[in-house]
Amino acid sequence: MTYIRVSSLDVTYRQNHMEVEAVKNVNLQVDSGEFAVVIGPSGCGKSTLLYVLAGLVKAEAGEVFFSQEPIVSCKRDTALILQDYGLLPWKTVLENAALGLRIRGIPKGIALEKTRNLLRDLGIEELSTRYPLQLSGGQRQRVAIARALAMAPRLLLMDEPFSSLDALTRETLQMNLLDIWQRTGITILLVTHSIEEAVFLGQKIYVMSRSPGTITAVVENSHAGDVTYRGKREFYDTCANLRSLLQ
Amino acid sequence: MKKVLNSDKKLGIKQVSPYAVSAVMLIVLWWGLSLVINKPALPTPAAAFKEFYNQLYHGLFFHAWVSFYRIGASLVLALLLGVPIGIILGRHKRLDSYIAPMIYLTYPIPKIVFLPVLLILLGYGDSSKIFLITLIVFYQIMVTTRDAARGIDPGYIMSVKSLGAGNGHLYWHVYFLGCLPEILTALRIALGTAIAVLFIAEAYATQEGLGYFIMDSMGRISYSRMFAGIIGMGLLGFILYLGLDFLEKILCRWKHLKK
User: Fold this and answer.
1) A141 vs A124: CA distance, rounded Å
2) What is the ipTM of this complex?
3) Partners of residue B169 in chain A, C-beta under 8 Å
4) Got the DSSP string for A24-53?
5) A8, B72, B121, B180 - which has most CB atoms within 10 Å?
6) Which residues fall within 8 angstroms of residue A10, CB to CB, at 6 or more apart?
7) Strand partners, A28
8) How close is the nearest chain B Cα to the Cα of A59, in Å?
9) Chain A interface residues (partner B, CB cutoff 8 A)
């Protein structure tokens, strides 16, 4: 069943009376429970696409539907994870992770209790009284994931979530993400500029080109989700295919 | 690195002593100066502190209380006005572009010169003093808050908005809490100005407050009493400063983290 449907989407930014076309004629479709990836060079409008889906940026033209319904504003069942700045430095890990619930108006005690359980599930309970500045990059993104999951979203939007991490931490977090995806059946749309990440995670990979950003190819990648995929021949073949599509 | 941290901790335990040493040194300095000058206008510390103790229950405590609540009310009012206005101007650049010239034109005017006008308009009671101090402190807090709000990274706003935050949530969780360290620093700096203005405001046309107490003692040529008032004023400033310092340490723990 189709969960997100985007058709002929245009987004234009106005900067100093200049119009910059960020995204032009984008079409994409993500099924419920699917792990989709958008890959493209930096500045191709990938992030803009996510912001539109998160309801943070308005589209110039085109349509965005969530399970047949048009998007209005920030949806309650959509969570967004950003590369940096996701967490507020003046709040502890627990307060940060509970922020979404607090904003929804859930009483403090219940929100903190729920969040504490979630942090325990993710194995980062011992960090709960620390501040983001005291965490490593990987720990910060774990907390950002916890904050998103606390809202029990149906759709998880991720904007280059692992790109500032070292290779080992990145791979661990990719495994964790796959595990969360398989356990919860959540729909994920992840934006990246890493070919390996796209192939390892994305069942469906959308290739974007630069200025104006538009989708130039779709790669079906049925092996994604297999934790041993990284060592297999098909993995390298798909990577090579994707690389040629990006050039 | 660890060794450095350890020695830092040891210093932390003994942190009271540097203050005590400084206090003793200042008193010795004062004592020496009073011996050299040898005039009644500068009594020895011993005489001044003795008089301070004597005066405490003969009106000095009451005058100190009046000064305290004038300062306190002014700081609270300046915060209640300056912080929201500063945050709104920092967030909305268009609005700020209209208001900013007005601030730049009026900021450098020494507002203390309005004291006579305020005395005539608001009377000789508390309101003229509180208004004047509030006006002066308001500017410092508002300008600092505005600049801090301007500096908030848009990434934080996007991230909190994506959680479904409305304007109220953004103002509280991002702008207010994010600007709080700067607001408290501005308040600490403004405190010095506030006390100076308080002294001048109380020196005229009032019969309450430490400023009056000091000027009244001068009129009576009772210099040790005058110094009791000066000690009172100094302590008032010191206690308020310590209070703000303490608040900052509690509310802005994230600014004092050891990585």
Assistant:
1) 11
2) 0.83
3) 103
4) EEEEEEEETT-EEEEE--TTSSHHHHHHHH
5) B180
6) A21, A23, A24, A25, A26, A59, A60, A61, A62
7) A6
8) 16
9) 51, 54, 56, 74, 76, 78-80, 82, 84-91, 99-100, 103-104, 131, 133-134, 147, 151
Residue with tokens 């390996």: A196
Q: Which residues contact A117 (CB under 8 A, 6 or more apart)?
A: none
Which residue positions in chain B have pLDDT lower than 70? Answer: 1-16, 259
- Whole-model pTM above 0.90? no
Sheet holding A61-66, edge to edge: A18-31, A2-15, A61-66, A69-70
Hunting for tokens 């100066």 — which residue is that? B33
Strand partners, A63: A7
Pairwise CB contact (< 8 Å): A104 & B155: no
Give the list of residues 6+ apart from residue B86 with CB closer than 8 angstroms, or none.
Answer: B141, B142, B143, B144, B145, B146, B148, B149, B179
CA atoms within a 13 Å half-sphere pointing along the CA-CB vector of B240: 28
- For A58-105, the pLDDT digits (tens) are 877 777 877 766 665 556 688 899 877 689 999 999 999 999 999 988
Question: Which amino acid is located at B159 in the chain?
Answer: S
B134's CB contacts (< 8 A; 6+ apart) are B73, B74, B77, B78, B81
- In whole angstroms, give the CA distance from residue A238 to residue B5: 51
Which of B159, B183, B255 to mutate: most A Cβ within 10 Å?
A: B159
